[in-house]
């Protein structure tokens, strides 16, 4: 079962209160066959711990890596994964669609 939005936001709040850097990744657009709908979220802390899902598991590793950079730099990023993208194949997004994920630092 996927985590509820309330659980994801609570984790972000708890991590921030504990002094952790936190980023939020949100699916902002999908095209074709996508594993998770727009609005799906993943919260990541500066230790690489995460909760939620933006892709049903197929690109989470790449999103976590990018989120760690966003936490460090404070600069948000728009990520795109799709079947035509070599990176997407490398991380396992072979579902035939495209997803765009916005990653921003929380706080």
From TrEMBL:
Domain XdhC- CoxI: residue ranges: 15-82
Pfam families membership: XdhC_CoxI
Top-rank taxon: Bacteria
Record-given protein name: XdhC family protein
């Amino acid at each position: 079962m996927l985590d509820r939005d309330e659980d994801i936001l609570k984790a972000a709040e708890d991590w921030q209160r504990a002094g952790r850097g936190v980023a939020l990744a949100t699916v902002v657009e999908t095209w074709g066959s996508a594993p998770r709908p727009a609005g799906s979220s993943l919260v990541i802390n500066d230790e690489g711990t995460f909760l939620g899902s933006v892709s049903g598991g197929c690109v989470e590793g790449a999103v976590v890596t990018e989120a760690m950079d966003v936490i460090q730099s404070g600069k948000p990023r728009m990520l795109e994964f799709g079947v035509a993208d070599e990176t997407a194949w490398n991380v396992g997004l072979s579902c035939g669609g495209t997803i765009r994920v916005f990653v921003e630092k929380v706080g």
